[in-house]
Amino acid sequence: MSSAQLGVLLHHLRRITAGRSQSVTPDRELLEAFLSQRDEAAFTELVRRHGPMVLNVCRGVLHNQHDAEDVFQATFLVLAQKAERVRKPEAVGSWLCGVAYHLALKVRAANIRRRNSEERTEERTVTDPMLDMTLRELHQVLLEELQHLPEKYRLPLILCYLEGRTQAEAARQLGWDKDILRGRLNRGRSQLRARLTRRGLTLSAGVFVSAFGKGVEAAIPAVQIQATAKAALASAAGQEVGRFVSAHVAALADGAVQSLFSNHGKLALILVLAFGFVTTGAGLWARQQLAAPAAQSADAPPAPPMPKVNPAKPQPEVVLEDKGDRLAVSGRVLAPDGKPFTGAEITVWWHDVRGWTCWRHSAMHAAKPYRGATSGPDGRFHFTFLKSAIKDTFLNADARPWHRAAIVAAAPGYGPAWVHVYDLANVHAKLQLVQDDVPIIGCVRDLQGRPVSGATVRFWRIQGGVDRDAWEGPPAAITTDEQGRFRLSGVGRDREAVLLVSGPRIESKIVHIPTQRMVEGKPVKEATVEVIAGPTKPIEGTVRARDTGKPLAGVWVYGNEHDCCNNHQVRLFRAVTDDKGRYQLLGMPKAAHYDLTVYAAEGQCYLDTARTVADSEGLKPITADFSLRRGVPVKFRFIDRRTGWPVRGHIQYELAQDNPLFAESAYAPRMFPSREFMHQRTTDQDGYIRFIAYPGHCAIFATAGRENRHFLPAKLDPADEAKGHFPLGKGDPMNGFLPLSHGYRCIDYPENAEEQTFDILFDSGVTLKGALVGPDAKSLQGAIAHGSPEIEVLPNDTFVARGLEPGNACTLSFIQRERKLIGHVVVHGNEKQPLLVNLRPWGALTGRLVDGGGKPLAGVRVSLKYPELPRPGMRPPEKEIRTDNDGRFRVEGLLPDFDHELTLEPGTKQDVSLSAGAVLKKLKTRAGEIKDLGDIAVKVVPVPKKEKKND
Known about the structure:
Layout lengths: L2 H14 L10 H11 L2 H23 L2 H17 L10 H26 L15 H14 L4 H12 L4 H8 L3 H21 L6 H6 L11 H15 L10 H14 L19 H10 L1 H5 L23 E5 L2 E9 L10 E6 L9 H5 L5 E5 L5 E7 L18 E6 L3 E2 L1 E4 L10 E2 L1 E2 L4 E6 L10 E9 L4 E3 L5 E3 L5 E4 L7 E7 L6 E6 L3 E2 L2 E2 L3 E6 L6 E7 L10 E4 L13 E4 L5 E4 L7 E7 L9 E6 L7 E2 L2 E3 L3 E9 L8 E7 L4 H4 L8 E2 L6 E3 L5 E6 L2 E9 L13 H5 L20 E7 L6 E7 L3 E8 L10 E3 L4 E3 L4 E7 L5 E7 L4 E7 L7 E4 L1 E2 L1 E8 L10 E5 L22 E7 L6 E5 L6 E4 L14 E8 L1 E4 L9
Parallel strand pairs: 2-9, 11-20, 21-27, 21-28, 29-36, 37-43, 45-50
Antiparallel strand pairs: 1-2, 2-5, 3-4, 3-6, 6-8, 7-10, 11-15, 12-13, 12-14, 12-16, 16-17, 18-19, 21-24, 22-23, 22-25, 25-26, 26-31, 29-33, 30-32, 30-34, 34-35, 37-40, 38-39, 38-41, 41-42, 42-44, 45-47, 46-48, 49-51
C-alpha cells in the first residue's frame, strides 16, 4: 500500500471516528431520565452527543449520504423503543454503534438485491471518493474479526477510539479503575492484532494507534437533531412518526426492532474500528487477496464471510440482566407443542430459605410474586423492575439476591412453567407450558370415614422435571363440599402436586399426588386421592409483655417448629395474636407434648421465646399463656476496613454459657429462650442488620454473602481475650464460629438498654493481579483458577487473587483442560504486580494393575496426590479414574518436574485393602511427558468384617 493510499485511509478513519458532545451529564442519567420521565431534553442530548459517531458509521458502510441519514434517524428510533434493553447504560454509544452498523448492512444488502433484480450494469456511484473497491473489501475482512472481541474489550475500544474519549473519561463512565481500563484496552488491541495476523495481516503498533486520531466532527444540523428526537419520543409513546421522519425510516426502525431483539435482546454489537491497521506489507497482502473480488462486477454481493473457528454458544431461553438499579427479564413462552404462546402471565417469585437457619421475616411474610408481563403474539416478554422490589428473603445477604428466584409462566387451562434464575446458564431450560389433562379429584375424611366438609385445600408446592425441580405454587385455595370432595387443576401432566389440607376440626396434613398420564401402561383421566385426617388438638392462650403486663398484638405462635429440620413441613402450624393478645393454634395432631415457639411482631422490643406443654385429656383445648421479656435492640453494618464500603452478609448469634438465660436451656421443662438466637439474620435493603438481642454476654459472628467471600477470616481481638471469655474460656460462645466468620462482635448489655448501633469491620486482605502465559503465547481463555477465589473459570488470560493475608503463603493454581496445561505460583501477599504464571503441558501416567497372580484388577480407583504446597494446595482432578477391565489406567494433570503419589482404593463391593509399596510414590514427569509404569503388582489383603455388637 502506497504512502498516499495510507494517508487517504487514515484521513478517512479520522473522519468516521468523529468527536462527541461535551455535556457533563453521564449517559446513564440521560437514559434513566428518558425511561422514567420521557424527558425530551435528555434524549435530544443523547442524539447530539452520539449522532456524529452514528452518522459516520453509516457513511462508512453505505457511502451514500441519503441512505446514511435515513439509517441515522432509524437508529435513534430503535433506541427510543428499546432503551430498557441497553445492557450498559453508561456506554450508550457502543449500543448505538451496533444498531447503526446492523441497519446499514441491511440497507446495503437491500440496495444490492434491488440493483441485481433490475439487472443494472452501469458502474456504481460512490459518493465518498476516498475509498476504492479494494479498501472496502479490506474493511469487511477487518470487521469479521472485530465483531468476535469480548464485550469487556470492545467497550473501551469504542469509547476511546470511536467516541474519542480519554482513558480517564472512559474509565469513569464504565465504573472501572484506570489501570483495569488501560489493561483491557491493551489486551483488546493485542487480541485484535492476533486475529488479523492469523489471516495474513501484519500490523504496526504505530499505525494501529495513529489510525484512531481524533477527527473532525460530522456536521448534523440542529433541526435534524430536533426532528430525530421528536420522532423517537413519538415512537416510544406509540404515536405516528410520519410528520417527523419518512416512512422508509419508520419501516427501517420497525424491522430492526423485530430482527435485533427477537433473541432475548442479545444484540451483537459489531464495531466499526481500526480500518487502517495495516502496514505496507498488509497492503500487498490486501492486493493479492482481494484481486479477484475487485475484478468482479461492482454490483455483485460481497463474498460470504470465512467460517468461524468457534461456533457461537446457544443463548438461554430466559435472561435476567443486571442494569444498575433496574433488573431486566426477557424470554419467551412456549405452548406444549413448542409453538409461541400468547397471553401467559409472567411472575417472579423470590425463594424463601426454610429450615433451622430460617429468619423470622421469611416466616412471617408470605411469598408475594412480582407480576411482570404477559407474553405477546410471538410468545416473548420483557419487563424491568427495581431491586428494591426484592424484600423479605434470606438471600438479601448476597450482593445479587435476584439470582435466587423463579420466573414463572402460567395460563388458564395449562400447567405452569418455571425457570430458576440460577439455572439460566442452562440453555435447555425453557418456559414451556404443559398439558393440564390430569385433574386431581380428592376426598377428605376423618378417622371414622366420615366426609369433612369445609376443609381447605391449597397448593404447597408443584414438582416436575427430570430433577424434581419445584415451584412453591399459587396461593389460591378451595374448600371441600358437603361430601368432603374437592377438584383441583392447573398442575399439569406428569408432575407431582404437594397439597396442604387443613380445617378447624382436623389436623393439617401435607399430601403428595402424582399427575401421571399413564399408570401401569394404561392412560388415566384423573388423579384420585383420599385424605384421612385425624382430629386436631387446639392450643390457645394470651401473649403479654412481662414488664407492663399489656397484651401484645401481631405476635406469631408456631407449633412443632423443630420438625422443619427433617421434612418440608416447616411452620405448618401457626397463629397470630389479635389486638387483645389472644391466639388459637389449630391443626396440630394429638401427641404426648407440644413444642410452641413465639416470635414478637416487627417493631416490638421483646425477645422470642419457646415452651413445651404436656397433653391434656381428650381433645379439650390446652391453655398456654406467654409473657415476653424485653430485649436490647441492636443495629449494625458490615464495613470493608480498606474501602469503607458496606458489605452484605448474615450473622450467627450465640449466647455465652455464663449468660443467665443460657441456663434456661431447650432441655428444661419450663419456659426458655427460643432457638432464635441460633438462627441466621441478613442485611436489610439499607445494609443494616436489626434484631432484638438478649441482655448479658453474647457474640455476633458475621459472614459476607456469596458474592464477597474474599474477606479474611476473623481474628480474636486481644482485648476480648484479656477478658477471659475467649478462647474456650468461661462463658465462651465461640462454638467454632470464629474461623468460619469474617468478623465478630462480643456484646454484653444490661436489660432495658437503649438501641445499640455499631459496625463490624471486615478485612479484604491483599489483592494481586496477574496473567497466564502458555508455552506458545496463545490466548488462554477458559482456564480454571483455584486458590483465591476458591474456584473460578477465567474468561481470558488474566486473573485477580483476592483475600490474601500478608505474610501467609497461598498457592494459586491454574489448569486449562482443552490444551492440557497446568501451572501454579505460591504468593505471600507482597509480590510485585502483575504476577506472571507460566502454564506448561501437564504430565500423565499410565499403567496396569495386577494382583500377585498377574490377574488384572478392574474397577480400582486411582487417585493423584499432588506435592505438598501451601494452602489450599493444588486442586485434585474432578474426574474419577478407575482401571478398566484389563486393569489399565491413565492419570493426567501432573505438575512437571514435581514428585507425585498415586493411591489405590478397591471397588465399592470389595472388602480389601490395596498396596503397591514404593512403586507409586515419588512419581515425576517432564512437561508433556506420558510415562508408562508398566504392570504394577498390587498386594490385595482382605479386610476382616467388624463383628456386630449385641444390642
